[in-house]
Design a protein that fits this description.
By secondary structure, this protein is of the alpha+beta class. It folds into two domains: 71 residues, no CATH class; 168 residues, no CATH class. Helices cover 31% and strands 18% of the residues. It is built from six helices and seven strands. It has a seven-stranded mixed β-barrel. β6 and β7 form a beta hairpin. The longest helix has 30 residues. The two termini are 16 Å apart.
Length: 293
């Protein structure tokens, strides 16, 4: 009987300690020495948002033209890529994009966005640890700044964001234009942000609305006439909705909202009190049942 009493109290104390530990790790991990991965990648200096990256693509002209003519197939060809004066041989390059790719392909323009894969033909080849990156044509933006500023804002908010900077592109020494160079959301990004044990990385592939699902005869244009009743999008407060990069700990590892801290601490305190109450009452009730009371 005495053993049961102490066992119940010990279990309750351990449960309260576990709840407290989980809360501390979620709200302020640095308090127990846990910090987010901050792996300063060697290639980070290439993506200086306040300077322009210089990129030259040395490629067979016939291969280049064939790639442009068949851009929608997104097939890689080999090129020698020079980045800020350093040349990497046999780098894979291909047109990339979704709507932007099909839009350019449907016009007389050949100013596609491109993806570079440094290890596509040479195993293990990287640019100071960078395996893939893209250059976006940003030609649909007359300001040439929306994507750039979006990344800058997200970075300032502390959201894990790919590295970025403007890039001046030439092809075989001939002018191609200004693009936005962006670190690919692939292995090098995951390792830089979350460390070597970053876990699984998934990417959804889709060329159609709905991820390629078959919606039959549904006409998505009908959604423009939907009646949302009294709902006013302009008056909706997203700060209370759970949306946004910093509104919840599930969006990004280690992310938390300062506004949720009092609530979490209250839950922790309540859980600890409840656990102690259970520890105090459970053995007594069990003893009374044993005596037939």
């Amino acid at each position: 009987m005495s053993t049961s009493r102490y066992f119940g109290k010990l279990a309750a104390v351990l449960m309260a300690a576990a709840v407290l530990l989980v809360t501390v790790l979620s709200v302020c991990p640095e308090a127990v020495g846990v910090t987010a991965a901050e792996n300063e990648a060697a290639y980070a200096s290439l993506f200086d948002p306040f300077s322009v990256m210089e990129i030259d693509i040395a490629v067979d002209e016939d291969d280049w033209q064939e790639m442009l003519d068949n851009a929608l197939s997104e097939e890689y060809i080999s090129c020698d890529l020079t980045i800020n004066g350093t040349t990497y041989s046999h780098v894979g390059v291909r047109p990339k994009g979704n709507t932007s790719l099909s839009t350019v392909a449907s016009t007389d323009s050949d100013r596609f966005s491109f993806k570079f894969e440094l290890d596509h033909y040479v195993d293990g080849q990287t640019c100071e640890g960078l395996d893939k990156f893209g250059v976006n044509n940003i030609q649909s933006d007359s300001t040439w700044m929306k994507e750039y500023l979006s990344y800058q804002i997200l970075t300032e908010l502390g959201v894990p964001t790919p590295l970025y900077c403007y890039a001046h592109i030439t092809v075989n020494g001939e002018e191609w234009g200004l693009c936005l160079a962006v670190e690919a959301l692939e292995d090098s990004f995951a390792e830089r942000v979350y460390g070597l044990d970053h876990g699984q990385l998934y990417k959804v592939e889709s060329m159609d609305m709905g991820g390629g699902m078959d919606f039959g005869d549904m006409d998505f244009s009908d959604f423009g006439d939907m009646d949302f009743g009294d709902f006013d999008p302009e008056s909706f407060d997203f700060s209370d909705s759970g949306f946004g990069g910093q509104s919840g700990s599930t969006a990004f590892p280690g992310a938390s909202s300062s506004s949720s801290t009092p609530f979490l601490l209250a839950v922790t305190a309540g859980g600890a009190v409840l656990a102690l109450v259970v520890a105090k009452l459970w053995p007594r009730r069990k003893m009374q049942r044993g005596l037939g009371k």
